Predict the 3D structure of the following.
Amino acid sequence: MALSAVLFKLFALKDDFWVTTFWNFAGEALFGFVILLAPNYRRQFIALLRKHPGAVIGVNGANELINLGGGLGVRYASLAAPVALVSAVSSTVTLFVFAFGVLLTLFWSKAVKEDLSRGSLTRKGIAAVFVMAGVILADVGSSH
């Protein structure tokens, strides 16, 4: 991920943001196509699509639109700020995903089941501390 972020910034500053973004997406699409060449993955994908076509297309489409907006925002921010800082701050998304998972588990348990056991919450809390420490270290490192 780090190498990808640095290479994106290098080419986006040298060439153009949208051209670099296009080739980035073209590479991701090619990688996805190569994965579908593997018979086992292709069978799993087709079976899931046949079983739940609306859910697969709808949920995946919504997820991709959200990821597209976030990814473009992070890439654009990396042009104006140090890549390490942008990457560190964008890594806090996992904390929000966890918080939404907990809230949805508490208030809409039919749809979402986040593990709220003491051990799981302890591990996730420790991981959150490491994420925040990374953000702080990247911020301190970029200001000097």
About this structure: The longest helix spans residues 53-80. The chain has two domains: 1-80, 82-144. Residues 30 and 36 are 10 Å apart (CA to CA).
